[in-house]
């Protein structure tokens, strides 16, 4: 049986009359990278603050390592590493001093791993924190977190302010944590980041979890893009079950572009085969397609939560 490191059940949180979290239920299993996605304001950070014991939920239950996140926050924090999306540092301390201070808070010490991370992330540790850009402030927190021997790593928009090369470096280190059997909760709105690293995904909209599962499971709900050319006419393909946005190429005979529901792709391919396929190109749905599928769904709420 797979052990859940993080378990959240029907979590709700209100600020006065405003309900930021309406119904949050998901878990993070041991040794997996769980992607927590949604646009800014969907409720990702509020959920994480509840997990960290910074905010107290109005109802529902949240545990980490089977410990209540509000009652046992201190014990939990000894086993986790956390990076927020906006890092604030003491302005008169150098980056190196801040890293050492953050490590000490987690009962950790500066190590050769810390030095390697400083070199990899190209951080000047002798520079005063007040002179750091947003990206460099993020690097300080990331280096401290990745130097920490934790059981659970919580990243809340961790690559905010980083350039693409540093984003790729962060992804490499998260995949290394996964190989070590560590658990990671990654909150992000950068879909390519989540798609590359995460084993499972939870989509939040308007303070509610609307879907969880592996990317492959979720792809069944979206459409595959098809470009096909055949020897015989493609007339009638547009009427097949599951075919959408069918467009004939005006320059090439018997060539068309369309989308097909994943559940119907087998039947559509069988029909195309009868028409003697010349060329065929299929593009599986991406996480971005999936994300837009939910956020453009009929009846979608305005996502104005914190």
Walk me through the structure.
With 306 residues, the protein is an alpha/beta fold. The protein has two domains: 4-212, P-loop containing nucleotide triphosphate hydrolases (Rossmann fold, 3-Layer(aba) Sandwich); 223-284, Alpha-Beta Plaits, CATH 3.30.70. It contains ten helices and 14 strands. The longest helix has 16 residues, at 164-179. It is elongated, with a radius of gyration of 23 Å. Residues 6-231 form the ABC transporter domain. This is ABC transporter ATP-binding protein. Pfam families: ABC_tran (PF00005).
Contiguous low-pLDDT stretches (5 residues minimum) are 298-306
Class inferred from helices and paired strands: alpha/beta
Instruction: Determine the CATH superfamily of the largest domain.
Output: P-loop containing nucleotide triphosphate hydrolases
The succession of helices and strands, N to C, reads EEEHEEHEHHHEHEHEEHEEEHEH
Main sheet characteristics: 6 strands, mixed
Radius of gyration: 23 Å
Rounded average pLDDT: 90
Report the span from N to C terminus: 35 Å
What share of the residues does DSSP label as strand, in percent? Answer: 25-35%
Number of strands: 14
Strand order of the largest sheet: 6-7-8-3-9-10
Task: Report the helical percentage.
Answer: 25-40%
How many separate domains make up the residues? 2
Count of discrete alpha- or pi-helical segments spanning 4 or more residues = 10
CATH architecture of the largest domain: 3-Layer(aba) Sandwich
Shape: elongated
CATH topology group of the largest domain: Rossmann fold
CATH classification class of the largest domain: Alpha Beta
